Amino acid sequence: xxxxxxxxxxxxxxxxxxxxxxxxxxxxxxxxxxxxxxxxxxxxxxxxxxxxxxxxxxxxxxxxxxxxxxxxxxxxxxxxxxxxxxxxxxxxxxxxxxxxxxxxxxxxxxxxxxxxxxxxxxxxxxxxxxxxxxxxxxxxxxxxxxxxxxxxxxxxxxxxxxxxxxxxxxxxxxxxxxxxxxxxxxxxxxxxxxxxxxxxxxxxxxxxxxxxxxxxxxxxxxxxxxxxxxxxxxxxxxxxxxxxxxxxxxxxxxxxxxxxxxxxxxxxxxxxxxxxxxxxxxxxxxxxxxxxxxxxxxxxxxxxxxxxxxxxxxxxxxxxxxxxxxxxxxxxxxxx
Length: 336
Hints:
Layout: H1 2-28, E1 33-38, H2 46-58, E2 63-68, H3 79-84, E3 90-93, H4 95-99, H5 117-125, H6 130-140, E4 142-157, E5 176-179, H7 183-191, E6 195-198, H8 204-210, E7 215-218, H9 220-225, E8 234-250, H10 251-256, H11 259-293, E9 297-299, H12 303-314, H13 318-321, H14 327-334
Parallel strand pairs: 1-2, 1-3, 5-6, 5-7, 8-9
Antiparallel strand pairs: 3-8, 4-7, 4-8
Helix pairs in contact: 2-11
């Protein structure tokens, strides 16, 4: 705990220093502000496309948008620190990554909590999110502009359905399932019944190809975009997480924009998120047929068994202990 607090305080100090540096940055780039955006996703990912085709044109009058894909600028998991230190202006971050700094964010990364893409938006725009957003701004120097729907995450395996049929969490015992390396992700992997293996997104394809891992979990559009179907044989539609990303923006840069420019940036981010969400939902409905055509087995396991097992794992855990009182009830109420 001491390490985490020290890290957060250091980043908070760096972020505060950047507030005063923002004016100097803008003065030396008075025509346009450069917005470097780093993501581990590919250029053809719907989030990447939406930011490049929707967000960037809307703010082109006063910014220069510079996207960097496949973790080519900042390593996955280091983007928030890069923003805090002034080495990056934008990223697409997850609740799991935010939970490494602020444990209470793990509530948004908990299995079977978000109910749909629409539910995510309702939660993000509700007043219950304000303390969460404010803490990220105050302590990390990062402003969360919009919520992006990543999709329903499913278990995607190398084994054929004849070799392994996943109907309950017990069936995942001993399965090495790639999950991102944060504590929140690893806990979710264990809650599913698997043996979670930490690994960067950019390493997954080769690991599946060589058998270093048995599988990975991502939404169907990501399975297709990253061509994981070339090195796997089945998808169990566990839908264990209605996954999301946040558009993360440097608070130092934000504070140096005019009120009108701030409105344009936020509106552009929301428009990009809306565009990506619509396309992602459309893709999810189309891709089962595509994957089956590629020879993959696609089937639905016992969702009630998975939901019950996963939620039981969180009861009494360190993650649930960090959740503000009453927030889970408010989230659930927004989904009714």
